[in-house]
């Protein structure tokens, strides 16, 4: 198995990660995909300045990918916070061997994409819906004023 350095050797990946992290950059997401069907090397497949729906549209049903997304979460403009989401995508038609390798390789990707509030491993684009992800981020933040507590 290649090391994390080999797997993620493209300098564009580190730059894209820094761009997504920076409030000064308009880049809000990045997607990493495998260089080919048989390769374990990842390449920067794309970046964008839109929301999570824009990123999700780049994920194919027969491919594996890793994504990193910047999102704003808050109850109002005064409590808005920037949070990051790490996505491990294995489309519903992804080959079994690729899925098996991903469990190991996602750990290597995390050596580069280190800072995030939630990780979502999925093969269902519904789990990447903005409202669903925002709810996961709010839960990770602790306070959630959108739902009633029944455990008092």
Outline:
It contains five helices and five strands, in the order H-H-E-E-H-E-E-H-E-H.
Give an overview of the whole structure.
This protein has 5 helices and 5 strands, in the order ααββαββαβα. With 152 residues, the protein is an alpha+beta fold. The model is unreliable at 148-152 (pLDDT under 50). It is globular, with a radius of gyration of 16 Å. A hairpin with a 7-residue loop joins strand 3 and strand 4 (81-90). The protein has a 5-stranded mixed sheet with strand order 2-1-3-4-5, with helices on both faces. The chain has helices at 4-7, 11-21, 52-56, 96-109, 130-141, and strands spanning 29-34, 42-48, 64-73, 81-90, 118-122. It has one domain (4-140): 3-Layer(aba) Sandwich (Severin).
Which features does this protein show?
alpha+beta; Severin; globular; disordered C terminus; ADF-H; ADF-H/Gelsolin-like_dom_sf; actin filament binding
Strand order of the largest sheet: 2-1-3-4-5
How many H/I helices? Answer: 5
User: What is CATH's topology name?
Assistant: Severin
CATH architecture: 3-Layer(aba) Sandwich
Task: Give the overall silhouette.
Answer: globular
CATH H level: which superfamily? Severin
- How is the biggest beta sheet arranged? 5 strands, mixed
Query: Beta fraction of the residues?
Result: 25-35%
- Integer tally of domains: 1
Helix content class: 25-40%
Which CATH class is shown?
Alpha Beta
Low-confidence parts:
148-152
């Amino acid at each position: 198995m290649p090391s994390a350095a080999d797997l993620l050797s493209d300098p564009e990946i580190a730059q894209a990660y820094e761009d997504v992290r920076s409030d000064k950059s308009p880049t809000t997401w990045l997607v990493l995909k495998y260089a080919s069907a048989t390769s374990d090397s990842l390449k920067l497949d794309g970046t964008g300045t839109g929301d999570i729906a824009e990123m999700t549209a780049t994920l194919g049903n027969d491919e594996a990918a890793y994504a990193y997304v910047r999102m704003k979460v808050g109850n109002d403009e005064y409590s808005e916070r920037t949070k990051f989401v790490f996505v491990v995508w294995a489309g519903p038609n992804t080959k079994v061997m690729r899925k098996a390798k991903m469990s190991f390789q996602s750990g290597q990707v995390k050596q580069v994409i280190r800072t995030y509030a939630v990780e979502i491993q999925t093969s269902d684009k519904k789990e990447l819906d903005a409202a669903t992800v925002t709810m996961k981020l709010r839960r990770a933040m602790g306070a959630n004023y959108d739902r009633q507590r029944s455990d008092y």
